[in-house]
Amino acid sequence: SYVPGQHGPNHRGRLSEYGMQLHEKQKLRWMFGLSERQFRTLFVRAGKIREGQHGINFMILLERRLDNVVYRLGLATTREQ
């Protein structure tokens, strides 16, 4: 029994494969500041590029975004600026 306001140890089980993939996708979305729709659109565009691997093409498209280029050049301290 625990005192009021305390609720025992927090035991989270291991994430499933799906859970891990979802978590990584959400981290990527948050990092680049994309909505789900923007993310999905870029992913579909990456799949339509003939050369290269789908995942690599997707990362190339993400890195080519103007907000990211400005951030990488050091002209902004965050991607949101």
From TrEMBL:
Transmembrane segments: none annotated. Keywords: Ribonucleoprotein, Ribosomal protein. It holds the Pfam family Ribosomal_S4. GO terms for cellular component: ribosome. GO terms for molecular function: rRNA binding. Gene3D superfamilies: Ribosomal Protein S4 Delta 41, Chain A, domain 1, RNA-binding S4 domain. Residues 1-63 form the Small ribosomal subunit protein uS4 N-terminal domain. Belongs to the universal ribosomal protein uS4 family. This is 30s ribosomal protein S4. It comes from Lactobacillus delbrueckii subsp. lactis.
